[in-house]
Amino acid sequence: MPRLLPALAAGLLLAAACRRPESVLPGDAVTIRYELSAGGKVLESDFDGKPIVVYQGTGDLPPGADRALVGMTPGEEKVLTLAPADAFGPRDPKKVRTMALADLGAAGKGLRAGKKVLGFLDGKAVTARVLSVAGGKAVLDLNAPLAGETVVYRLKVLATRSR
User: Fold this and answer.
1) DSSP state, 135?
2) Which CATH number fits domain 94-141: 2.40.30.200, 3.30.470.20, 2.40.420.20, 2.40.10.330?
3) What tens digit of pLDDT does each residue of 27-78 get?
4) What residue spans define the domains of the chain?
5) pLDDT at position 19 over 80
6) pLDDT tens digits for 100-138?
7) 22-89+147-161 has which CATH code?
8) How far does the chain reach from its first CA to its final CA, in angstroms?
9) Residue 56 contacts by C-beta under 8 Å, 6 or more apart in sequence?
10) Degrees (nearest 5) of the Cα angle 28, 34, 40?
11) Structure confidence at residue 2 (pLDDT)
C-alpha cells in the first residue's frame, strides 16, 4: 500500500500539470478585449473599458481575427496583422456610386464631402462616405471604411463558454 500512494500522487500531479484552461472552440461565446489599428494609429480599443462578448464563427469579428480565436485560452493574447482579405475586404470600385441629390431626399440637403449618409443597399442598412458633391450629384463610397487596408488586431481572451 505505501508504494501505491507515491504512484497515485505522481499520477494526480501529472494530470493537473497537463490540464489546460478550456480553449476556444468554434461557436463559443468568448469574452475578449481588443484593439484595432491601421496605419500605426489605434482606431478602437476596449482595453481601458468593458470587455465585449463575441461568438466565434458568426462574423462578430473580421474573418482573420475570428479564426485566430479558435484554440486560444483565457489569459492568452495575440497580435495579428490582417491583410484586407482577412479583415474588411478589398476596396470595390463598384461600391463608389454617383447619385442625384434629389434621390437622397432630406439627406441630400447640405451634403458635402467628408460627411456620412445612412441608407439602404440591397435591403441592408449601409453608411456611405460622401467623396464629392457637384452639379446636383453626390459621389458616395459604400465600401467599409477600412476596406483595402491592412489592419492590426490585438486580442486577449478573458473567458470562453460553449453555446
Assistant:
1) T
2) 2.40.10.330
3) 999 999 999 999 999 999 999 999 999 999 999 999 999 999 999 999 999 9
4) 22-89+147-161, 94-141
5) no
6) 999 888 888 889 999 998 877 788 888 899 999 999 999
7) 3.10.50.40
8) 45
9) 24, 25, 26, 27, 28, 30, 66, 69, 70
10) 145
11) 54
